[in-house]
Specification:
Elements: H1 5-12, E1 30-35, E2 40-47, H2 55-67, E3 74-81, H3 84-95, E4 114-120, H4 127-140, E5 145-149, H5 157-161, E6 168-170, E7 173-175, E8 178-179, E9 182-186, H6 202-214, E10 223-227, H7 234-242, E11 247-252, H8 256-272, E12 276-282, E13 286-287, E14 294-295, H9 302-314, E15 320-324, H10 328-336, H11 340-343, H12 348-360
Parallel strand pairs: 2-3, 4-10, 4-11, 5-9, 5-10, 11-12, 12-15
Antiparallel strand pairs: 1-2, 6-7, 8-9, 13-14
Helix pairs in contact: 4-12, 6-7, 8-9
């Protein structure tokens, strides 16, 4: 007995668009459903754009979903492309009718996304590795996570996540690639082939950050992580202006020279009135391969020194969230696009990063920084 239209539609409702992360039935991507008496089902599917990089994934998922319906003897897929009017309708469905002025969704009243800007005083302390592994650990724990690779000159997040696809553009909305269940955007995804440098000055850096925040369709994220460039330059200032409720997460190594610079990077919060989520000490020690003794390759105490100094500067406690031991596999995972917290979660470095991620992934019960949409009224 051939399946019914309702049965096939219900199966298609389980197919999630790999970029937008919503059912294709909700996105009006199902063009047609034709069911032959012999049980052959022909499904027409609209792609958002011609040459959609994930069309094979959509074809596979639709085929698998419909094949599982009782009575289906075969599945045929016809791919089509949305018209301009359909794309505009999709954009309105996803983002609403915002008008000509674009908005950053994380600044809107009622936004529950925790925005964390990962900063360091200098390069080479493992800031990007920490960002990627924290994001991967949060996503593996069921949170909806996004990363903005705001390190415009030193963008490395796409490689560390093996995010090789280019973003898809729907009208003036950008759909970010998804890797390890993390939505990610980076200037490296828009460059021509090759390792060409980005030669931009301040205003262009600010514009790029604004577009990453306002033009990209992020959906309902639990956490947005920004991988900032080292220091307190243009991007750090732009983040404070564009995302005033963003919290800073400072990464340092135990070395005092690195700690002093990290303290300066965190001290920007005193001028921008941002909160500091805490300090992470990366490469805290090297476990001896023979006796498990901790070898302080880069010295000791830098993380706690930064946390104590920032606590004094800001007048409130800044915690040392964790000390991540040195592990070659953390570096190797970054080169291969396989975060250590996913491939070897029981290693000491991964376990520490997972612990930190679990703490950061919890929403605060405080109302600080949340827009309540309340207006004063005059007492009668």
């Amino acid at each position: 007995m051939a399946p019914t239209q309702d049965q096939v539609t219900a199966a298609l409702a389980t197919v999630i668009d790999p970029e937008i992360r919503r059912p294709i039935t909700d996105l009006d991507m199902v063009k047609s459903i034709d069911i032959a008496p012999d049980g052959t089902v022909r499904v027409g599917v609209f792609l958002t754009v011609a040459g959609c990089p994930l069309k094979d994934t959509i074809r596979r998922d639709v085929t698998n979903a419909v094949s599982g319906v009782e009575g289906v003897s075969g599945v045929e897929i016809e791919l089509d492309v949305m018209s301009t009017e359909q794309r505009k309708a999709l954009q309105t469905k996803l983002r609403g009718d915002r008008g000509p002025e674009k908005e950053i969704p994380f600044n809107q009243p009622g936004s529950l996304t925790r925005v964390i800007a990962v900063a360091s005083g200098k390069g080479g302390v493992g800031k990007s590795s920490v960002t990627v592994n924290l994001a991967a650990a949060m996503a593996a724990n069921g949170l909806k996570v996004g990363i903005v690779d705001a390190d415009i000159y030193g963008h490395s997040v796409p490689r560390m996540l093996a995010a090789s696809e280019r973003p898809t553009k729907v009208e003036d909305m950008i759909l970010p690639p998804v890797a390890h269940d993390i939505k990610v955007i980076s200037v490296g995804m828009f460059k021509p082939e090759g390792n060409s440098p980005v030669v931009w000055r301040g205003p262009m850096l600010d514009r790029a950050l604004y577009q990453f925040l306002s033009d990209v369709f992020w959906g309902d994220l639990d956490v947005l992580l920004l991988d900032l460039p080292p220091g307190t330059g243009d991007i750090a200032i732009s983040v404070a202006q564009r995302l005033p409720t963003a919290e800073l997460l400072v990464v340092t190594t135990p070395q005092m020279a690195a700690a002093e610079v990290a303290e300066r990077a965190g001290s920007i919060a005193a001028q921008t009135h941002q909160q500091i989520a805490g300090v992470i000490e990366n490469m805290a020690w090297l476990p001896c391969p023979h006796c498990d003794e901790r070898i302080p390759v880069f010295g000791e105490g830098g993380g706690q020194t930064v946390a104590d100094a920032l606590s004094r500067t800001l007048g409130s406690r800044v915690p040392l969230l964790g000390q991540v031991p040195f592990d070659l596999r953390l570096r190797e995972g970054g080169d291969e696009g396989k975060p250590l917290v996913l491939t070897d979660p029981d290693t000491p470095a991964a376990a520490e990063l997972i612990k930190i991620a679990n703490g950061l992934g919890k929403r605060s019960s405080s109302l600080k920084g949340l827009h309540l949409n309340l207006s004063p009224t005059r007492a009668s």
